[in-house]
Amino acid sequence: MKVWAKALLLCALNWAALASSSAKELVLDGQLTQGSLIRATVPAGAKVWFNDQPLAVSEQGHFVFGIGRDAALKHQLTVEHQGKRQQIPLTFSGRQYDIQRISGVEQKYVEPPKEVTARIARDNRRVREVRQTFSAKTLFLDAPLKPAAGRISGVYGSQRIFNGQPRNPHFGLDIAAPVGAPVLAPWDGKVLLAEDLYFSGLTLIVDHGMGVTSTFMHLHRFNVAVGDTVTAGMQIAEVGATGRVTGPHLDWRINWFQERLDPQLLLPEFAPAAPKRIPLN
């Protein structure tokens, strides 16, 4: 309990730092490592580029970005404020990923039959389209709630081997829980997708603003529908065992547009790094 309380206090301080950045600094909240979502603040009115990509910045100076599992480690932020432009190099740390061997998977999910090829392609297009959604909200600034209770049974980045056959890495956090266990919204948001997809089964995607989305996979039942507004801690679904699974669990994912990021790095119990403050000219 003491560790949990300390983590919550640190996250509260992180949020306060983001909410009250001084007029002359860049604040970065998040671990500078592969798979990380970085929430940041600059003085109001500043413009920001990540490498050469312009980023959306809220009226309060909040913005967000992230890098994927195998991204390069050297990046650059450029901040323009009051006619001055400053380039800030960022060095991310690399990660080593587990190898996870899973047996007992239905063969139709390891080597899908030809008749489902079109469905899989359609599912993939649909998810990509939804994850490209942009809204100006910044509902991701505070620490997310863990969306289900249970042990962690799978982690981000691990190389998956199904029935002895290598497949794509895992891009989510698996939480083992019984069928029907509640799934909670980690942040406020709006439901963008609630569909039955081939590999991920009943799948829910929630928008949190500026390209940040949460995905909840292998569900048993939806408690919300597309277009619904949700609040942090609200039950949005039930844990299930649909799609490519060997048992009931929640696969929770975080995206920044098409970048697939590590939800575990955002949870208070994993002691996120203190905000990094960089003076601006």
Automatic annotation (TrEMBL):
Q: Does the keyword Signal apply?
A: yes
Q: Which Gene3D superfamilies match?
A: Glucose Permease (Domain IIA)
Ordered alphabetically, the record's keywords are:
Signal
Per the record's keyword annotation, is Signal included, yes or no?
yes
Kindly list the GO molecular function terms attached to this UniProt entry.
metalloendopeptidase activity
Q: Which SUPFAM superfamilies match?
A: Duplicated hybrid motif (SSF51261)
In Swiss-Prot or TrEMBL terms, this protein is called Peptidase M23B
Native organism is Alishewanella aestuarii B11
